[in-house]
Automatic annotation (TrEMBL):
Residues 119-175 form the Cupin type-2 domain. It comes from Ralstonia holmesii. CDD domains: cupin_BLL6423-like (cd02231). InterPro entries: Cupin_2, OryJ/VirC-like, RmlC-like_jellyroll, RmlC_Cupin_sf. Coiled coil: none annotated. This is Cupin type-2 domain-containing protein. It holds the Pfam family Cupin_2. SUPFAM superfamilies: RmlC-like cupins (SSF51182).
Amino acid sequence: MSFPTIQRIVTGHDADGRAVIVSQGPLPTVVEIAAIPGTVFHEVWSTSGNPVPIDNGADPTVGALMLPPPKQGTRFRFVDIPPDTSEFLARGATRMQEAFTQVGDAHASTVRADSPHPLMHRTESIDYGVVIDGEMTLVLDDSEVALAPGSVVIQRGTNHAWANRSSRPCRMLFVLIDGVYDPAIAEALQARTQPEAR
């Protein structure tokens, strides 16, 4: 199964301040993740700074692929996620460093020997994840939730993975917003990642 090509329309202003179409067509940046065949990132837009400058600047999606949003910014993308395979589940953890390096955030992976899924990861951001087509399972440290089209996950910097336990790909829409952990949460997360004293 393949999903429709995403068409993007970007507006702007001409020299007289009139609204104009700056670009229209397929996304310029669509990348398949080599370590997870079938996983495709469709980069729609990103912003940096707050408040966001409203200008006729260059396309922010052209360049290196980055998982997290820019500092004080946002990232808007679609992700096509293939079904988990037994081979991926058995050997996936060994390839995650490669996968997260390709998406520009090698430190996002949190997978350990006892992780519930080989794609466990965390970013310091608020992420809105919407299932557009297909089925998905949100995997957390201690629980799971089945998702169907129209399900919306508000991911608040938590450790998680997206598990596709169906027989066909799933397309999700993500909006990532840069954030900062509350000091108490940051301290608890740091304590969890420290090796136990002997």
